[in-house]
Amino acid sequence: MDSSDVFSDENGNEEGFESTLLNYLESITNIFDLVFFLRSTGLIKENNFFYRNLNRSNIGSKIWFVTLILSIRKLYKNILKSTKLLSLLKTELTKIEKNNDLTSDIILQKIQNNNTILKKKIKNFIIELIQDFIYLIIVSLEIFKISISKKLNHRLEILSNSVSMLKFFTLEITPTK
After folding, report:
1. Distance between CA atoms of residues 42 and 48, nearest Å
2. Residue ranges of domains in the chain
3. Mean pLDDT throughout 152-156?
4. Which of 44, 67, 76, 81 has the fewest beta carbons under 10 Å from its own?
5. Which residues contact 136 (CB under 8 A, 6 or more apart)?
6. At 72, which helix (H) or strand (E)?
7. Which is nearest to 164 in space by CA: 8, 44, 34?
């Protein structure tokens, strides 16, 4: 089984309606994410034109909220599928290690490479999931007008920025095949 199978549905389709919608919404919310990051780091102020217009009717937050819910769902499914695949790879690895011929060595190397790639993907999924949960908390507070102390709000912003930086520094480009 190839590790790229994790990202396709039962019929082998990589893109479904939900996935296409999520990709579209993520493109829009990447702008929100950037503006939020710039505001929380102090590079732009709350009276900035882009920030003010995004938050005027809370439509940006509502779109972001839906996107985060769909993204968390997708990440959770990918983590489950990936760990299941990782388990299957480990089972195959133990079976192949018992054989001692040239073909087994080639297959063993291929499985070990897929195992390494899959572990990196799972790590990236988990970091993204944590980041999305933090953003979901922040966006939920905005949408539902839940007031929290400035100290707690500041800590949430620091946490979200820390996870963003962690994601940036640990993101590894993995080959698909």
Report:
1. 11
2. 16-170
3. 89
4. 76
5. 65, 68, 69, 72
6. helix 59-98
7. 34
